[in-house]
């Protein structure tokens, strides 16, 4: 059973959260930052729900201490509506999300469930990244033609630039493989390689998949979603079947490719 630590100075909030979560998770309670830190060091919880205002320390200070102990522990901030700005600052320091008081139990349960799901996905992604690095090293590409050698050499040169590259060719010739050569031959090889199969994404979800969305941006947007472009970070995006991108998205995509940023 997953362990959740609740750090809040209000007994009513602590007991309410315990009652709401105890059927699915093992719950630990702390009324001060010090008690919370002691519990983290002793119990190593899988998730922390942390109030911004505590009697002994500011919640942001406790968040920093938590990240020093274990940077992988997900932290959800509890905040009043008037403290949303501070909650956003907490997310910059490593909190995964925030929820406002009075909180909605169903929304909190969904947020916790999605948090654990994302943690599992991160672990799977790390495993896949290792497999990808093993599966696609440049030295294992087998070819004999002079033309192919020229393509590989050009791909290696491109790996040291920040250029947007257009790869043309019939289906099945290995465009994604060449994209991986570009990625893994240069300084971005330790960063994510994110393939996006444009034809497989429904038009209504395209913007959210590529650019993400903020919490509350639309109905059922219970938490912030990181888009593929943000996920790639300083790595490489491979847009497969780019001609399948909806017309409504092409202008925004072009602006992103030109400016290398989005808002």
Q: How would you describe the overall organization of this protein?
A:
By secondary structure, the chain is an alpha/beta fold. The protein has two domains: 3-117, Rossmann fold (3-Layer(aba) Sandwich), CATH 3.40.50.2300; 128-259, Rossmann fold, CATH 3.40.50. It has helices spanning 11-21, 33-43, 59-69, 84-92, 105-135, 146-158, 175-184, 206-211, 228-232, 247-259; strands spanning 3-7, 26-30, 47-51, 75-79, 97-100, 193-197, 236-240. The strands form two sheets. The chain has a five-stranded parallel β-sheet with strand order 2-1-3-4-5, sandwiched between helices. It has a two-stranded parallel sheet with strand order 6-7. Helix 2 (33-43) runs parallel beside helix 3.
Compact summary:
With 263 residues, the protein is of the alpha/beta class.
Task: Set out the fold topology.
Elements lengths: L2 E5 L3 H11 L4 E5 L2 H11 L3 E5 L7 H11 L5 E5 L4 H9 L4 E4 L4 H31 L10 H13 L16 H10 L8 E5 L8 H6 L16 H5 L3 E5 L6 H13 L4
Parallel strand pairs: 1-2, 1-3, 3-4, 4-5, 6-7
- The fold-level CATH name of the largest domain is Rossmann fold
Roughly what is the average pLDDT, rounded to an integer?
86
Uncertain segments of ≥5 residues (pLDDT<50)?
none
Share of helix among residues?
40-55%
Give the second-level CATH assignment, the architecture of the largest domain.
Answer: 3-Layer(aba) Sandwich
Distance between the termini: 39 Å
């Amino acid at each position: 059973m997953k362990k959740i630590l609740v750090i809040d100075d209000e007994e009513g909030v602590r007991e309410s959260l315990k009652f709401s979560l105890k059927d699915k998770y093992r719950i630990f309670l702390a009324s001060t930052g010090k008690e919370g830190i002691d519990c983290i060091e002793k119990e190593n919880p899988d998730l922390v729900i942390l109030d911004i205002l505590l009697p002994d320390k500011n919640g942001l200070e406790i968040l920093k201490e938590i990240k020093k102990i274990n940077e992988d522990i997900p932290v959800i901030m509890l905040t009043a509506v008037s403290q949303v700005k501070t909650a956003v600052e907490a997310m910059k320091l490593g909190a995964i999300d925030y929820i406002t008081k009075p909180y909605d139990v169903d929304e909190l349960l969904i947020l916790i469930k999605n948090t654990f799901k994302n943690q599992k996905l991160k672990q799977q992604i790390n495993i896949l990244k290792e497999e990808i690095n093993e599966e696609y090293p440049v030295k294992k590409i087998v070819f004999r033609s002079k033309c192919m050698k020229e393509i590989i050499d050009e791909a290696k040169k491109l790996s040291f630039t920040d250029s947007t590259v257009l790869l043309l060719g019939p289906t099945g010739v290995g465009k994604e493989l060449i994209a991986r050569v570009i990625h893994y031959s240069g300084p971005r090889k330790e960063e994510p390689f994110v393939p996006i199969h444009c034809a497989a994404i429904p038009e209504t979800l395209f913007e959210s998949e590529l650019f993400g969305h903020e919490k509350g941006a639309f109905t059922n947007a219970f938490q912030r979603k990181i888009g593929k472009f943000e996920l790639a970070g300083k790595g490489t995006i491979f847009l497969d079947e780019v001609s399948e991108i909806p017309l409504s998205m092409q202008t925004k995509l072009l602006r992103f490719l030109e400016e290398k940023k989005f808002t």
